[in-house]
Amino acid sequence: MKKILLTFVAAFLMGTTAVNAQKWGGQFIVRGGFATNNFKGEHTRGIDMLPSYNIGVDFNKTFHKGAYWNTGLMLGTRGFDVDKSSAKFRAHNFNIPFTLGYKYDLTDNLALDGRFGAFFGVDMAGKYKLGDEDVKIGDIDHYKRCDGGIMLGLGVWFKRVNFDYLFKRGFGEVWDEGPAGAVNHTIRIGYAF
To answer: To bridge 90 with a disulfide, which of 40, 53, 79, 102 should be the other Cys (CB 3.0-4.6 Å)?
Structure first.
């Protein structure tokens, strides 16, 4: 719980520095929304989607006309649900993305954007629930907290408000002979400073 609280404090501090975005020639964006989590690949038969959340602070820096690079800090989850055995795995994590994108102005107030790139993630807390038993991720043998992968985002802007779809595909195993290939679909709304 302390780690999650620290995450919120870090996101707040990044948000309060948004007033300095003009000095850096960029734009801070605070986003939050709904996510679905699952895994694809080996050892994933019979697992289902797990609904969740995603919040974050992004920084966009334009380098040529509508082209920009993006980085930030996201708090979200990865996990799965298995109804037949009452099993559920959910890990809360930090993700640091780095993407390249392009924002195309349709009118003075309306724009579309798309971006692609990579992310690095670290699980901070979570548990694996099997029936009535809960096992914290720190107690799972050979648990692998880190993950990395690719991401693709598409968005619509109305003035400073952003509606965003984000797809993430991780490639790391969660534990030895465990599920690999975390898949997240996220729909978020954001505001740019």
So the answer is: 79
